[in-house]
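Chapter review: from sequence to fold.
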Amino acid sequence: MNMVSLVGFLPHELELKASKNGIDMCSFKLCAYSGKSTQLLKCVSFGKIAQNMTKNLQKGALISIGGHLEGYTLEIDGISRLTMEIHVDTVHFL
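The token string follows.
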């Protein structure tokens, strides 16, 4: 089962964009605390969730997200790298 549930802060302002297919999307980082360290996690939301997030949230907001991990390969300088991001299914404004 591929499920992710996190609570964290938004370190940057959100921006609504359209994907190549015309679907609204919002790519953002989530600042989550893990023990003594802080992690910046790549996240993306789509459709109504993306619209509501950009309309109602601003830098520094505390949120809870639920979603799943998606992996994809990037090629940088001829080297393939696997990267992961969280595709957000639910958001709770805290």
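Two observations follow directly from the output. The beta strands are 4-9, 17-18, 24-34, 37-46, 62-76, 79-93. The chain has one helix and six strands.
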